[in-house]
Amino acid sequence: MRFKNTLFLLLFFLLSSNISGQQYTDDLGAEFHKKKRQEFRNQMPPNSIAFFFTSPIMKRSNDTDFMYHQDPNFYYLTGWREPHGVLVIYKDKQQDEAGLYNEILFVRERNEYREMWDGKRLGLKGAENMSFDRVLLRSSFDENSINIKNFSNVLNMDIRDDVRDFKDDKYDLYNIQNKFLEIISAKEISENLGDQKKEFKNTSINNIMSNLRQTKDSLEIKLLTKAVKISSLAQIEVMKAIHGEMTEREIQGIHEFIYRKYGAAHEGYNSIVGAGANSCILHYITNDAVDIDNQLILMDLGAEYRGYTADVTRTIPVNGKFSEEQKEIYDIVYESQEEAIKKAVIGNTFNDIYIESFKIISSGLMKLGIIDNIEEARKYYPHGVSHHIGLDVHDPGSRTLKKNMIITVEPGIYIPENSDCDPKWWNIGVRIEDDILITESNPINLSADAPRLSTEIEILMKQESIINQLDLPDIDN
Ligand code: GLY
Ligand code: MN
Ligand code: MN
Question: Are 98 and 122 contained in the same domain?
Answer without folding.
Answer: yes
